[in-house]
Amino acid sequence: MIDLSRSALILVDIQNDFLPGGALTVPEGDRILNAVNTLAARPFRAVIATQDWHPKNHCSFTAQGGPWPPHCIAGTHGADFPEALTPTPVTHIVRKGVLQDRDSYSGFLDNDRATSTGLDGLLRGLGIEHVVVCGLALDYCVAATALDARHYGYRTDVVPEACRGIAADPGSALEKLKKQGVLLKSVEAC
Ligand code: VGL
Ligand code: ZN
């Protein structure tokens, strides 16, 4: 059983641009919202939402030679959390990918492993020992966040039914997580 008083729920990048109709749609991304709201209603010590938050000429955008269409531009509707997440009692927001010249898939560190978002310090300050991770996209930012949570020493669960990936088959992302000691849990088991 999880001691929720020492646990944080981390909602990764559940933002309009990753949902159907958004600039970088994750297929079926909207299907996670019920499970996410159910999880968030549990008495976690903290419910932390990461928010992809890019300047409009961000290095990850195709016009700058990056892999992605422009998405989650700071202050736009696409970067907002969806209305359907309103019941969820988010206690903290951690923004990532905020600097023009570097991207951050993980909610903890940017991709060159140099700049911290402050998430580790936030969790330590709250006395968190265990994190439950869900959101979008399973094969990019959810996986990177869960792997870093392990790296920083947290017991780490991922809830696959509250995640969707960009790739059609998230199997290899899940295998990699399991190899690193991440446990896959159902909503009921959290
Ligand atoms: C993400 C690609 C670019 C994600 C963010 O949240 O998984 N993927 N920016
Ligand atoms: Zn991004």
TrEMBL record:
Pathway: Cofactor biosynthesis; nicotinate biosynthesis; nicotinate from nicotinamide: step 1/1. The keyword Hydrolase applies. Keywords: Hydrolase, Metal-binding, Pyridine nucleotide biosynthesis. Pfam families: Isochorismatase. It comes from the Bacteria. Its EC number is 3.5.1.19. Residues 7-170 form the Isochorismatase-like domain. Belongs to the isochorismatase family. This is nicotinamidase.
